[in-house]
């Protein structure tokens, strides 16, 4: 398959128009059209659905686009590492991180890696656990920090990083005490802020209440932690979360959720695990996890 035709396909997919792609690539529209037609013949299927305003990817085209982008990323990585004589990390590496670990892991890891390995372009995806799993499954990220309690992923190596306490967070007037653990019975009747299914924290909240014979009562479904914190401070509701994602203060209180914790895990795509940049990034992540354990923020995994 001609690499130039593959790059043309990607640009047409991005712009949704042969005319716009021709302008950007400095080629004629007939040339672009012939290249796309040749690619469709080679693949034996339709990549685009044409309409008056341009063209959209077909379902098969979307799948091929993901594969093409990944192929080019792999090629760029191989070229960069070859050029560097496999001595210094270079190229591109993709990392998936949960927003809840922003201050304790994501920020320190990205900052350290960017400064230590300036020849590597780091792509960071922030998403909740089930979305990160999808990114690992599709090969869009090389590494991700996941919850160990989630689904088994094929062709992915998993390494436990640390265990973290779950807490019930509430507004100031709730007077939750970080020294006094509470059980799920404390959630009975509370207005709950929750992530949308199949989020892990949502699932354990529902299961814990159901086990105690209590009804699950959500007042807001959301997707981001900053909004959850804002709503807690405003007194809108309560949230079950990992401890490190929250900070006690004048407007938020929290208490440990008795017997409840999560294990954070490093997931690495086996096909790219030996890449120099991937190995370097994995080492930075493990080092930060060890720091969190030494500081008492996480516990050592069993």
Overview of the structural elements:
The protein is an alpha/beta fold. It has three domains: 3-65, Winged helix-like DNA-binding domain superfamily/Winged helix DNA-binding domain (Arc Repressor Mutant, subunit A), CATH 1.10.10; 68-162 and 263-294, D-Maltodextrin-Binding Protein, domain 2, CATH 3.40.190.10; 163-260, 3-Layer(aba) Sandwich (D-Maltodextrin-Binding Protein, domain 2), CATH 3.40.190.10. It contains nine helices and ten strands. The strands form three sheets. It has a six-stranded mixed β-sheet with strand order 4-3-5-10-6-9, sandwiched between helices. Strand 1 and strand 2 (54-57) form a beta hairpin. Helix 1 (3-15) crosses helix 3 and helix 5 crosses helix 9 (276-294). The longest helix has 25 residues, at 59-83. The chain starts with a helix and ends in an 8-residue tail after the last helix. The model has no long low-confidence stretch (mean pLDDT 88).
Summary?
With 302 residues, the protein is of the alpha/beta class. Helices cover 42% and strands 25% of the residues.
By CATH reckoning, the class of the largest domain would read: Alpha Beta
Q: Helical proportion?
A: 40-55%
Helix/strand order: HHHEEHEHEHEEEHEHEEH
Query: How are the strands ordered across the major sheet?
Result: 4-3-5-10-6-9
CATH architecture of the largest domain: 3-Layer(aba) Sandwich
Mean pLDDT: 88
Biggest sheet, open or closed, and with what strands and sense?
6 strands, mixed
What is the strand content? Answer: 15-25%
Which residues form runs of ≥5 with pLDDT under 50?
none
Any idea what the CATH superfamily of the largest domain is called?
A: Periplasmic binding protein-like II
Structural class: alpha/beta
